[in-house]
Amino acid sequence: MKDEIIAHLNDPGQLEKLYRSNKVPFKRAFSTLYPELKGNTLADFWNERLNYESDELAWGTGRELAFVIIASLVAGLIAKLPAFLNIEQEFFYSRNIGFIIFPVLSAYFAWKNNLATSKIASIAGLTLVGLLFINFLPDVKKSDTLLLSCIHLPLFLWSILSFAFVGETRNNDEKRLSYLRYNGDLVVMTTLILIAGGIMTGVTIGLFGLIGLKIEKFYFENVVVFGLPAAPIVGTYLTQTNPQLVGKVSPVLAKLFSPLVLVMLVIYLIAIIYSGKDPYNDREFLLMFNGLLVGVMAIIFFSVAETSMTTKSRPEVWVLFLLSIVTVLVNGIALSAILFRISTWGITPNRAAILGGNILILLNLLLVTVQLFKVISKKTTINEVGKAIASYLPIYCLWTVIVTFLFPYLFGFK
Fold first, then answer.
1. Which end of the chain has a smaller Cβ tally under 10 Å, C or N?
2. Which letter does DSSP use for residue 291 in this model?
3. Which of 172, 394, 184, 396 is nearest to 310 (CA)?
């Protein structure tokens, strides 16, 4: 996006077209470029325009609103399929939970980015392959590979959504980083929507209860089932049309939680020593340990994505650097525990999946840590850290494909 802005800086018409095609990435890219462009008449105009905050909420065009409403209804109808078709709920939701949300979000970005027909066909084809594959897998009870496929399939659909989000741009790393920012913004916005919806649900059920009407079952089966999948769809729409809603909240959260997580993680590692717990012989503890690792890694990546577009202050970079080092240590402990369990009790689908995931995370964290050290040493910029994250995302996508589609056959549906 930065290169495109610079290329069209003296062409107001093309700059306007670029802005309208993707407002959020445009605003973020322009904010980082403006210090270098200050003094340019057109750049000064765009700076004033982009930083003017209206008191009113922008609702986009009528077509966008219609698309969001239809997409929300479609997602709700998909969620209601077990009731319509008399399908066992556990079977349906365990395998198809990702298809309630991700395909409609992919359709939204494919439409918004005016993707070529060939790319839309690829996105639709990959989604259909995932749908057919997961639903035709044998219904084997207590199958680890089936469970792994069901867990990793939403990640595969998340990867497909990233293709729709990135679109036809040349600078894929920048757009992938924007995709991570979008996910962080979406979590914030969806959480707010769900909190508001939860309050409304409680008030509505309470009011009807006061007049003797018990509407809980009807409300949850016909209102909540449509409202839950609509929340991320509406949240996506709001973050794309009104970036100012969470544009200031997300960086604040990143700055606030990074040092808090660093302190918590250090205290937690010390507490493990005194607790007597260890991931080498306690399977449940190892799973929780890996969950902690993924969560902390997500915070690092989200913080880097936000920092690369907002500020480059050294204290924040130091916090991220120290957090990365501690997370590498946590990853090393988890990885050694997995290797210990494999050497002692042999390979299983779960151990293979966790081993592969930990190796990928460790390599990515090492790349990020090295880049953060270079930033501290003033040998590079924070943008290079973002590129180290963004360029690695396709590797995670490839791993989800392997676990989802190949593991059931590699391990004989065990």
1. C
2. H
3. 184
Q: Which of 80, 71, 20 is nearest to 46 (CA)?
A: 20
Q: What is the enclosing helix (H) or strand (E) of 324? A: helix 314-345
Query: What is the number of alpha carbons within 13 Å of residue 146 lying toward its C-beta?
Result: 15
The pTM of the full predicted model, rounded to 2 decimals, is 0.84
What CA dihedral angle connects 176, 177, 180 and 184, to 10 degrees? -150
Dihedral angle, C-alpha 280, 283, 289, 290, nearest 10 °: 110
236 within 8 A of 86, measured Cβ to Cβ:
no
Map residue 21 onto helix, strand or coil.
Answer: helix
Written as one string, the DSSP assignment of 110-151 is HHHTT--HHHHHHHHHHHHHHHHHHHHS---TT-HHHHHHHH
DSSP 164-216: HHHTT-S-HHHHHHHHHHHHHHHHHHHHHHHHHHHHHHHHHHHHHHHTT---H
Listed as ranges, residues in the chain with pLDDT below 70 are 1-3, 20-25, 28, 51-60, 168-171, 244, 247-248, 250, 307-313
Q: Are 360 and 399 in contact (CB under 8 A)?
A: yes
18: tokens are 């670029």
302-339 pLDDT per residue, tens: 887 776 655 556 788 898 899 999 999 989 988 999 99
The separation between the first and the last C-alpha atoms of the chain, rounded to the nearest angstrom, is 46
